Amino acid sequence: MDRKKVTVVGSYNVGLFLKGTAFPGPGETVIGAEFKEGGGGKGSNQALAAAKLGASVSFVGRIGDDEYGRYAQRLYDEFGISKDNITVDNETHSGVSVILIDENGRNMIMVVPGANFRLSKEDIDRADGLFRDSCIVGFQLESNQEIVEYGIARAFAAGAKVLLDPAPVRPLPVELFSKIWCIKPNEHEASAISGIKVTDSASAVAAGHWFLDKGVTVALITLGSQGAVLVTRDEETVFPAPAVKAIDTTGAGDCFSGAFMAALATGMDMHKAIRYANCAASISVTRLGVIEAIPTVREVLDLLKAPESTVKA
Q1: pLDDT mean over 284-304
Q2: How far apart are CA 187 and CA 269, in angstroms?
Q3: Which residue, among 102, 100, 143, 141, has the nearest Cα to 123 in the 3D structure?
Q4: Long-range CB contacts (< 8 A, 24+ apart) of 111-114?
Q5: How many Å is the Cα radius of gyration of the chain?
Q6: Distance between CA atoms of 223 and 205, rounded to whole angstroms?
């Protein structure tokens, strides 16, 4: 059994990126300045980040029998990601997301899931061997939620640590929490799920304990430029993010999740893995796009050499 493997179950969406000065309002048309097209989807982004940042990665998902799906397969080949559990669905299109980015790097996103919502229990069952051989299995909520919950239960039963990035945010059944080793929401998702308004490290700690009380082992709440907050039964620790000039925050949370899983899979302890993920996400927001913004291992390690900055919450 090779417990250094990372498996990601999730979505692939082609991303259509439009950048301009400001977002349009309802009924308004604005002229943009830049356009890019590239692979996306929260699951795919996290798998690609984990692979580029040091892990052996398998992806479980569905793509359409179209050019976007063929591009995805070429991308996985380039990054060395196993495609054995990717199903090509000839009855629908690959997922599509449109991302609007303003001059401050903020984004608005609309997703049409396509093949992602046709991920099935049979697809999950075929991945059982992957779950048993993986040290961590990552999930998000961009696929059919019934299947996500089924997959989490199967991965938990297989003995893998389950990480859930609960985005896009949805209500979660209380019985699911005990099967999740680590939940990694941002401040908005943590607020929506827990009912505790998360604006800073203190409120993140309160939300973290809410998740622990529901059965989660580790709550890791990201706060954008404020960094991340780790809450377990034994500690409450704040991990400040490196100060950078953000030009595009799209995909930063996915980069963090992928980097965190890769760090754990390659043997880093929890604190170093969070700092590694913080550094990776911080570098990514200084670049336009998602996949092309994922840094290299060397870039992250160089930033990681900066003096450690963790404080008690």
Answers
A1: 93
A2: 24
A3: 143
A4: 111/13, 111/142, 111/168, 113/11, 113/13, 113/142, 113/143, 114/13, 114/64
A5: 18
A6: 12
The per-residue pLDDT of the chain, averaged, comes to 94
**Contact call for residues 277 and 260 (beta carbons, < 8 A):** yes
Give the predicted TM-score (pTM) of the model.
Answer: 0.90
Q: Which CATH class is domain 5-11+41-90+117-312?
A: alpha beta
Q: SS3 for 126?
A: helix
Position 95: which residue type? Answer: G
**Residues facing 228 on adjacent strands:** 222, 239
Residue 173 phi, psi (nearest 5): -65, 140
Query: In angstroms, rounded to a whole number, what is the distance separating the alpha carbons of residues 33 and 133?
Result: 46
* Cis amide linkage into residue 26, ω under 30° from 0: no
Structure tokens at 8: 């990601």
Strand locations in 102-232 (E): 107-112, 134-140, 161-165, 182-183, 218-222, 228-231
Per the residue annotation, which of 66, 254, 269, 302 is the catalytic one? Answer: 254
Cβ atoms < 10 Å from Cβ of 247: 15
Residue 174: CB atoms within 10 Å: 9
Which has more pLDDT, 107 or 191?
Answer: 191
Answer yes or no: 89 catalytic: no
